[in-house]
Amino acid sequence: MPRIEDNARDEHFWHAIAERYDVAPGPINLENGYFGRMTRDVAQDYQRNIDFINRNNSLPVRQHFDEIQSIEIRDRVAGLLGVAPASVALTSRASDALQSLIRNYNGLQPGDQLLICDLEYHSVAYAMRWVAQQRGLEVIEISHKHPATHESVVTRYREAFERYPRLKLMALTHVTHRTGLVLPVQDIVAAAKEHGVDVILDGAHALGQIEFDLQALGVAFAGYNLHKWIGGPLTLGFMYIDPQRLTDIDPDMGNQHYPEPDIRNRAPYGTTNIPAWLTLPRVLQEHLDMGGTQAKGARLNYLRDLWVSEARKMPGIEVLIEDDPRLRCAITSLRFTHLQDQQPMVERLLKDYNLFTVARDGSACGSCIRITVGFTTTLDDINQLVNALRELSQGN
């Protein structure tokens, strides 16, 4: 068996993987963090499932999907995390799962405090502020310096726990969509538990590219999706609740569709994208064929390190994520230090160099450019990015 590091550099292998995807001509996509492409086989299977459900309508759904296939699919999703099937409920996206967990967490009293940071996904921050307004709570907001270190992040949370003794619940993002920082979840959760603070984990960008043991992380509540690094169709997500903590989350909007106790009552109830869920077994097989999370993560980090190592040498460019393997992933942001607003450089990368990236605001570091490699990214793409950054850093 080849070492995982060697496999990450095996261009023949990854070229064959890239050939599984249909890619339209046009700009080089370095914004793979929004959602992932489906492979050709997955897209074709998805289309077959759309056609099947459209032709047959509700009959196979009522007779088979609702009672059998959805359970089998839920069990396979639980297998991704190595957790009990009874701890997983299917949702349309990570945001749905996280918002439901936040609004239905029942361990809060007026005057309690909630904790968020500058790296949360906006819908998570909105939900925390909304709950605070509805229940007479106080939202505590902290920020992290950039580039962050493992120690600085953990210390920042410890300081918050000690300073705000009425904290009861916090949001925590495993991989932030703004800069790509991978937060040290296990250490933060352990510190939170010492102070009686529960954690709702946003794992949207983590699943499929970062290896983790959810139970070892100590997380009781989490939300994930399957359309980023797992490679499923859009509208596939799920929530996780530790079965021992199920009663700490109320049924969503009073949902009693399933006999209690059942985690599925904690998810928003409604008609799902059934063809997408029927496609998931093919998606998971493709995920395994690529080598699973270990191989995917190693390849993505290899490509990321190629451009980052060169960008660090360029005057006027600041890379916002350290090279500590505990903190980095496919997503890494940078900024041109002479500009507050990075959008003009995003536009130049697209117009002058045919490179599609995206600007992100909201973190304490200010505006930045998010660059996210993917499974169709080539060495030529990386070289084109490096050359573009070098020219732009020289004022060209």
Features:
Aspartate Aminotransferase, domain 2, pyridoxal phosphate, PyrdxlP-dep_Trfase_small, 7-stranded mixed sheet, Aspartate Aminotransferase, domain 1, alpha/beta, aminotransferase, 396 residues, 2 domains, Aminotrans_V_dom, Aminotransferase class V-fold PLP-dependent enzyme
Describe this structure in words.
It is a single chain. The protein starts with a helix and ends with a helix. Helix content is 43%, strand content 14%. The mean pLDDT is 96. By secondary structure, the protein is an alpha/beta fold. The protein folds into 2 domains: 130 residues, Aspartate Aminotransferase, domain 1 (Alpha-Beta Complex); 239 residues, 3-Layer(aba) Sandwich (Aspartate Aminotransferase, domain 2), CATH 3.40.640.10. Helix 9 links the parallel strand 6 and strand 7. It has a 7-stranded mixed beta sheet with strand order 2-8-7-6-5-3-4, sandwiched between helices.
What is the CATH topology of the largest domain? Aspartate Aminotransferase, domain 2
Write down the CATH class of the largest domain.
Alpha Beta
Our count of domains comes out at: 2
Distance between the termini: 46 Å
- As residue ranges, the low-confidence spans are none
Number of strands: 13
Radius of gyration: 21 Å
Helix count equals: 13
Mean pLDDT: 96
